[in-house]
Design a protein that fits this description.
alpha/beta, seven-stranded mixed sheet, three-stranded parallel sheet, 7 helices
């Protein structure tokens, strides 16, 4: 394992609200989003304008939202977790950075970066994440969840993402027998502590992650977990990421890069899956 060296344009957003929210939520939230630098646009989404739907909802992520990820482009889901019915400042910062192609981790935070080459590196990255939570006085259960999320994010980037020009995976269908990937297939993980908890990120250099596996995992929430190997990899890992995280953000540059971020809060893990969550999937055109 090597320690990594430290290393776009915004799109218009059409703001909508989940029917379960109070009618005045949009009027309360819109000025907050504008002050955060988010480019809201009026009128319905039209593909020719490049606008994307941003839905405000109560943060109760579940199967009913899965069809929203299957839209083209996928709807981004932003939780209204603050007492006044608005999104949190730290989630708005992540969303703004996502749209601009900027780093998703907290600005100015101490950042740990690792290059992963071997399967044993997954355990090292997970241990680093757990140790960072513990050093930050997070709950012991939160440290375990952070380790789990880091492992799944890293495994997706290291083993599921690499594929040939036809999209055939190199490693996803033989995870159990892989010990190391080719030098050109290594991935990078990062972790930092900021508002909201620990920020865990994995980056691959293939840009193949579509919204479909996330939508399948979302559709399975609350039910019995099942393995789905279509396209390579096991869907159980994606479901665990959704269950454990306060926020999931994905930025895909097709054929070049997938950057997936999970934020795990420092509180006790009881009923974590039922806490408010935001899910932001964005693919650059």
């Amino acid at each position: 394992m090597r320690v990594a060296h430290p290393s776009g344009a915004a799109t218009g957003l059409h703001l909508i609200a989940d029917p379960s929210l109070a009618p005045n939520v949009l009027q309360q939230a819109a000025p907050v989003l504008v002050r955060s630098g988010l480019p809201l646009v009026a009128g319905p989404v039209r593909s020719r304008t490049g606008a994307r739907e941003l839905m405000l909802f109560d943060g109760r992520l579940g199967p009913s939202q899965a069809p929203l990820l299957e839209k083209d482009p996928p709807t981004m889901l932003l939780a209204t977790r603050e007492p006044g019915g608005t999104p949190s400042a730290w989630e708005l910062r992540v969303l703004t950075s996502l749209l601009r192609g900027e780093p998703l981790t907290p600005p100015g935070a101490a950042l740990t970066k690792l290059w992963l080459e071997q399967v044993v590196d997954l355990k090292v990255a997970s241990s680093e994440a757990a140790a960072l939570v513990e050093a930050s006085k997070g709950h012991r259960n939160a440290a375990g969840l952070a380790a789990d999320v880091m492992h799944e994010l890293a495994a997706n980037a290291l083993l599921d993402a690499p594929a040939d020009a036809r999209g055939t995976p190199f490693y996803a269908h033989r995870r159990e027998s892989v010990r190391a990937v080719a030098p050109e297939h290594i991935c990078q993980v990062s972790m930092a502590v900021g508002e909201g908890g620990i920020y865990l990120e994995a980056v691959d250099l293939f840009g193949r992650l579509g919204p479909e596996p996330i939508a399948r995992a979302l559709a399975s929430l609350g039910g019995r977990a099942q393995v789905n190997v279509s396209g390579g990899g096991a869907g159980l890992g994606m479901r665990r990421i959704l269950e454990h995280c306060e926020l999931i953000a994905v930025h895909v540059v097709p054929g070049k890069e997938t950057r997936m971020l999970g934020v795990v809060g420092f509180g006790e893990a009881r009923r974590r899956a039922a806490l408010p969550k935001s899910l932001l999937y964005f693919k650059s055109e």
